[in-house]
Amino acid sequence: MLEVAFKRSVGAFTLDVALEVGAGTTAIFGPSGAGKTTLARCVAGLARPDHGRIALDGRVLFGGGTAVPPHRRDIGYVFQEARLFPHMNVRRNLLYGAPRGTDPGPVCEMLGIGGLLARRTAGLSGGEAARVAIGRALLRRPRLLILDEPLAALDGPRRDRVLPWLERVRDAGVPILYISHAVEEVARLADTLVLLRDGRVARAGPVGDMLSDPSVAALMGSMQAGAVLSGRMVAERDGIAAVETPVGTLQVVGAGEIGARIRIRIRAEDVIVATEPPREVSALNVLAGTVASIQPGHGPGVMLRLAIGEGHLLARVTRRSATALDLVEGRAIWALVKATGVARADIG
Amino acid sequence: MIDLPPEALSALALSLKVSLTATLVSLPLAIWVAHVLARGSFRGKGFLDAAVHLPLVLPPVVTGYALLLLFSRSGPLGAVLEPLSLGLAFRWTGAALAAGIMGFPLIVRAIRLAIESVDPKLEEAAATLGASPLRVWLTVTLPLAAPGLLAGATLGFAKAFGEFGATITFVASIPGETRTLPAAIYAFLQVPGGVPGLRGMVGVAVLVAVGAVLASNWLAPRLAARVAGR
After folding, report:
1. ipTM tops the 0.90 cut
2. pTM
3. Chains A, B: CB pairs < 8 Å
């Protein structure tokens, strides 16, 4: 468990945070300039708070006169740029922080970098370098792993290729602090979401609750709002998978193993709302529910939170539609979600 | 092959001994000073920087005279060292000291630039991997600065090899003890009518200096490529 409560001012900017990070993956989310990286650097000991306290598993790292140097904090750090040592090959990079006699095999297998061991770092692709950097931090056997936007330097397709490896790292059990400003990554990887804004913790909570909360969506920018549902793959036919979720069984585009637990994110933009049971529509998913809340957004839109089954979906509609359809709290509705409305990258 | 008189050969051997000793002994100190100047932030950094550069800008004869004042039998350091038979005045070790001091600013400059060009982000990454500051320095900073280290050492060696003014002021020009190649050339020039082998000695001095720089230029990019993982 990481306990953080400190203040740090640089010029006009003040980072003033208090939070606890438990097991699993905690995403620190916020726009650039919110103080995410500063927070991570203070935790790792690369930057120093003005005052406050940082403790990891009960051991005080900062505060009360102590300031443990970074190399004694047992915290692994993966930077935005891979920062591999250019004068060492991949193998020596991987083992740099590992205890003597460590076998890099299992970590290499987990990250798919076993074939790169003898390579010089200069010839690696961005995705390979990112994975080596992650492996290097893991092999150091950290009590906490900080991933500071490790995918930010990669383009879209490369990012999608590295994400599954990150999921395997997450499932390996090391507590992770994941710094990000990409909702897709957060939705896919995080258990807990901490929303950082202007140097303060705006909101914090389980990622599913947070992402389907319209007021959080407003803070994150409504274009990116969407519900995150955990589900189980129950069937697959013609490239369409049936996934059991709290809002019912959803038909989504994508393949996977039957029985696998997956996460689905349905963006508020992709949900259509009807007040009559629609007939003969192409959307494969028609879900009956009620309007749980309405939140005015920026511009001409409003954000609806729909209670469906035992879960929630978010839907963004125009204010005009909301008035025309008389969408008020408690109104019965039908939510339409296209099977393709769940993009491949959102299934994880 | 250039035909050299025995005095010239002994001067050449002495010069090589003096300049190699000067370079090797001053290198660790130069590395330390370069590191402090590149990465340290402390009061008096500007003063240290100026002091290191002093031999470069002072007339060499002034540097030699200052050394003589310090290390002569009555000087503050000489008074301590002479009774222990460790005196430097008028010995080849003194020549090495003078040569080392004259080459020092050049070595420090080159190494400082090399250390400054090492990305501190890599040092940070090493620290988060559990490496102590010393290990970071030995396994990351130093190897990455190696090409600059080589360049600095070569430059310092060439400068020490050619050093004349401070050396002759401090340790005079005693054949076999302190008469380095430049001092020998100067002595031979004083003989009316000239001495055979003078041109050969000048040729050797040029060869050694140019050869050192060429060797360094050849080696540095290869070392850099190796270090950079290409």
Report:
1. no
2. 0.79
3. 72
